[in-house]
Amino acid sequence: MRPGAGLMHPCCVSLRWLTAFLDFPAGTFERGVDFWREATGCGLSSFRGADGEFATLLPLSGDAYLRVQRVRQGPGGCHLDLHVDSAATSLDDMAARAAGLGARVRRRADGGLIIADSPGGFTFCLVRWHGESVVPGPLIAADGAASRVDTLCLDVPPELFDQECSFWSALTGWRTGPAPVPGYTYLSEPPGIAMAVRLLLQRLDSAPAEQPVRAHVDFGCTERRDTLGRHLALGSRIIAEPGYWTVLADPTGREYCLVNRVLTR
Fold this sequence. Notes:
The protein is an alpha+beta fold. The chain folds into two domains: 10-128, 2,3-Dihydroxybiphenyl 1,2-Dioxygenase, domain 1 (Roll); 139-260, 2,3-Dihydroxybiphenyl 1,2-Dioxygenase, domain 1 (Roll). The chain has helices spanning 10-14, 29-40, 91-100, 161-172, 224-233; strands at 15-25, 43-44, 54-58, 66-71, 77-84, 104-109, 113-117, 123-128, 139-140, 146-156, 175-178, 184-188, 198-203, 214-221, 237-240, 245-249, 255-260. Strands 9, 10, 11, 12, 13, 14, 15, 16 and 17 form a nine-stranded mixed beta sheet that branches. The radius of gyration is 18 Å and the shape is globular. The two termini are 30 Å apart.
């Protein structure tokens, strides 16, 4: 039986929310935060952390699911927080499950935070769930175009793709299914549990040797061309338009996509 098929796995009800982190090098942090506030229509929490390196993008409605972080090393990118319902599963048990599936547990921090890497090297954190359940509505622009960051896409080197699909399905207990475009696989959360951001895995055509799994976010858009004009006005530039989506880079060089989508959540 493939991972996620058949009876609901206990992890289905243990994972109750996902938070996507946008990680910026120190020199681009302020500019990046300003752009993403405008692009998402969110407010901004106070900065926190030992060096004021974290903040939350606050939606106009619903529960927060996007955060920004200034990183000390590396080019930045994205990582993922998995919010675990401690009434169903402890963080330690979830970390042990991840390790048994091939993850590398890197650190246990104070306050209930476990940092790990997937078998392909994508960083994720296990954190406690605090009741988040309401998916925010989209940003409605003056022209009526609606958009919302609704997907975290893992960009997977071809030789790691099957392993990463199996890992994330087994860890979450969620079913995998093919996306409309070949080379993409979705993870579908179980009925009755709302997630503000879905997980999508993309098989890259090629990747440099030893490149780890990376990620980018997608905006679902009801009117992609109108949303594109707004993003260009905010300082983004077009990288590619391969189909019914547009690949952009924000003013700091971070790539993301605008995708034609009916926004139902």
